[in-house]
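Treating backbone geometry as a discrete language has practical consequences that deserve illustration. The amino acid sequence and the backbone structure tokens for this protein are reproduced below.
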Amino acid sequence: MPVIKLHIQKGRSEAEVGLLLDTVHEVMLSAFSVPERDRYQLAFEHEASHFRALDTGLGFERTQNFVLVEVVSRPRSRTEKLAFYQGLAAQLEEKCGISTSDIMVSFVENTDEDWSFGAGVAQFVTGEL
């Protein structure tokens, strides 16, 4: 049920974007214990001139490979979030060659009545999910 939004600079191939999406999904499955078909992802590609990602003074060297991962979800525990951060950094570095200093994650949490998966119904509220 999480909606995952990836913000990246233009220039990656379709295969690279696909691998990013697949890797994020694998980490989400592990960290959040959601069903495999619970997959809602969007990749937004931005012109380099429209993209600013500094390091908030933490000393990270940001590059054109920077990825901002936005997770829109029902509330997750601290344990789940930390597992997601750690798993994502490790897997994106291993599988996609993205430095851990080029990965930023932000959670936007909401409640059951904030979701409708179709048919004008709030399935979490009705008990369908």
The chain has one domain: 3-126. The beta strands are 3-9, 40-46, 67-73, 103-109. Residues 14-32 form the longest helix (19 residues). The radius of gyration is 16 Å.
